[in-house]
Amino acid sequence: MLQDLLSNNRLWAQRKVASDPGFFRRLEGQQAPDYLWIGCSDSRVPANEIVGLDPGELFVHRNVANLAPPQDANYLSVLQFAVDVLKVKHILVVGHYGCGGVAAAVDGQRRGLVDHWLHPIREIQHDHRHELEGIPVPERRLDRLTELNVIRQVRNVSSDVFVTDAWARGQALKVHGWVYSIANGLVTDLKVTVSGPE
Ligand code: CO
């Protein structure tokens, strides 16, 4: 099976060079993506592929349930590099319906370390319990919690000092909240875009 992956890789690289001989040489020089994608690790949500972008066009950070926790050094390092060095124009926080992370956060089962990682989602559930309890179908309730999680992470990103400092310097930067549907491959814009401190 691993041999298949390596053969796939050879074919992929050949095809890239066939359609654009300078492709890899250009990328070797530098990356200049306009977008930072913060998404879920789920194998069904391949960032570049969903939005039709090539290598070099999307800076990607993925973790379980697409969180942007202000105390996570991994996420913060990615965010600072994307904002201060790459100067991306857009940050896309992308959740997805049917997220196992969101479901695991609130199903009451114990799994270990990931329960701590997913704790922010339980807080979101608590903050919005009245709205969520009013949704009778359990799957729809999880869909809504998925959207609320994206909205909360957009708030985390847009209130981060790396982002607010960029705005104070006059840097153009927008933070968007999207949800991807595994069922039909379509992205929905939650229309919670933040483009400045106000
Ligand atoms: Co997920």
How would you explain this protein's 3D organization?
The protein has 198 residues and is an alpha/beta fold. Helix content is 49%, strand content 15%. It has helices spanning 2-19, 23-29, 47-50, 73-86, 100-106, 113-117, 119-127, 129-133, 138-158, 161-168; strands at 35-40, 58-63, 90-96, 174-180, 187-189. The chain has a 5-stranded mixed sheet. A hairpin with a 6-residue loop joins strand 4 (174-180) and strand 5. The model has no long low-confidence stretch (mean pLDDT 97). Bound molecules: cobalt (II) ion. Cobalt (II) ion binds at residues 40, 42, 65, 96, 99-101. Residues 40, 42, 65, 96, 99-101 line the site of cobalt (II) ion.
Bound molecules: cobalt (II) ion
What sort of overall outline do the alpha carbons produce when their principal axes are compared? globular
Instruction: Quickly count the helices.
Output: 10
User: How would you spell out the order of helices and strands?
Assistant: HHEHEHEHHHHHHEE
Secondary structure category: alpha/beta
Query: How helix-rich are the residues, as a percent range?
Result: 40-55%
Q: How many extended strands?
A: 5
Return the average pLDDT rounded to an integer. 97
